[in-house]
Amino acid sequence: MAIRTLLLVLCIIFLLVSPSLSGRTQLERQRKAIEISIGVGVGGSGSGSESPTASPSPTDNSCGCSPPASPPSSEPQPSDFPNLKQYYAYLVIQRFKRSITCDPNGVIQTWVGYRPCTYQGFYCAAPPDSPDTPTIASVDFNGFRLCAPTVAGFVDQLPDVALFHANSNNFSGPIPDLTGLPYLYELDVSNNLHSGPFPADVLALSNLIFLDLRYNLFAGSVPASVFALDLDVLFLNNNNFFRPLPADLGSSPVAYLTLANNGFTGPIPRSICNASKTLVEVLFLNNKLSGCLPYEIGLLSIATVFDAGFNQVTGPIPWSFGCLLKVEQLNLAGNLLYGEVPDVVCRLAKDGNLANLSLSGNYFTSLGLSCWDLVKSKVLDVRHNCIVGLPEQRPPSECSKFLWRPKHCPVSHYIPCSLSNCSVKPATSKSKSSEYMTYKALHQPPPN
């Protein structure tokens, strides 16, 4: 009886405990399933090892706080600048700044901030189409000695620039297409390392009045159309240009023309007479020009400088040169000229403004009456000619050899002006050659 009662008690206890154990096991399974579904214990390494708990998403706002503010942009915005034009100019300048490889004067250190009009070498004005919007209108890098492989992508991207002066730098490569600069009227890239053929793109610049390409490495021919540009100044000296000068060179309205120190060939174009009312100074100095000295040169009624020294021009001096009443510097030295130095030309020192007449290194055999006084006063230089009775002449054998050569140039005694009516008073003070614009163009600044 007692045993039966004990067994009965044990069965009741088992029935009471069994559901509790089953529920705990099922609860543990459910909890483990929930943990797996939210990533606990799921690693990215594939090794089965436990990985750190994932960081909350940036968009998670479970903490109830506001999302962090975005950091401010380091790039300048258009609103930082006085106007949109200056903003775009800033971008162009900064891009060019990064291409500069040398800056001995520390110029580009000033190219900082949101006011490009204050940068060294840059000047602002309002363009005609935007009178209330000042922007970069002038770039003057003269003497900065900056180094850059090209100015393409710089000057051609400043659409309102009117003057670009970059004398004495170390810019190289060709000149970029500047046809997108409608206001450009002065272009000076002299004394650099630009190369290639004549920059033909400048021919489309209808407002250009000043073009200075001297002291570069340009080569080849000069297109005739450059002399159709409405220029006041054209400096092409000290390059590697060659081939004959265009026959219509005289159609140019240019006042100051330097073609010196190149390799131009052929004659001085007779069309030069068409520039009689515009050409003030012209340098053909030190080329390979040939042919007879044109009579038409004597029609240059306002010319103060005519220099064709050190070429291979031949013939006698036409008497028309006696009409060059405004000329102050007349240089024909180092050529193949011969005959008599005309008296009418030497009289220019009295009747006109002649201060220097250089005829040395030719083959003249005699002097006009008025010329002897100019030799004494050193206005006329006729050394190394064939003039009997004067010191420092060529050896007789050298003179004879030349004078026996066939001569084909005509002797022109026609004087196309009335000297008694058109003579002018001598200038009160004769200028020195260093004061003339064209002669100044021959002086190269010190090496970079």
Automatic annotation (TrEMBL):
GO terms for cellular component: extracellular region. It comes from Musa acuminata subsp. malaccensis (Wild banana). Residues 43-79 are annotated as: Disordered. Gene3D superfamilies: Ribonuclease Inhibitor (3.80.10.10). The keyword 4Fe-4S does not apply. The lineage of its organism: Eukaryota, Viridiplantae, Streptophyta, Embryophyta, Tracheophyta. Pfam families: LRR_1. It is found in: Secreted. Its main location: secreted. Coiled coil: none annotated. Residues 1-22 form the signal peptide. This is (wild Malaysian banana) hypothetical protein. Keywords: Repeat, Secreted, Signal. Residues 48-59 have a biased composition (Low complexity). InterPro entries: Leu-rich_rpt (IPR001611), LRR_dom_sf (IPR032675), LRR_extensin-like_regulator (IPR051582). PANTHER family: LEUCINE-RICH REPEAT EXTENSIN-LIKE PROTEIN 3-RELATED, LEUCINE-RICH REPEAT-CONTAINING N-TERMINAL PLANT-TYPE DOMAIN-CONTAINING PROTEIN.
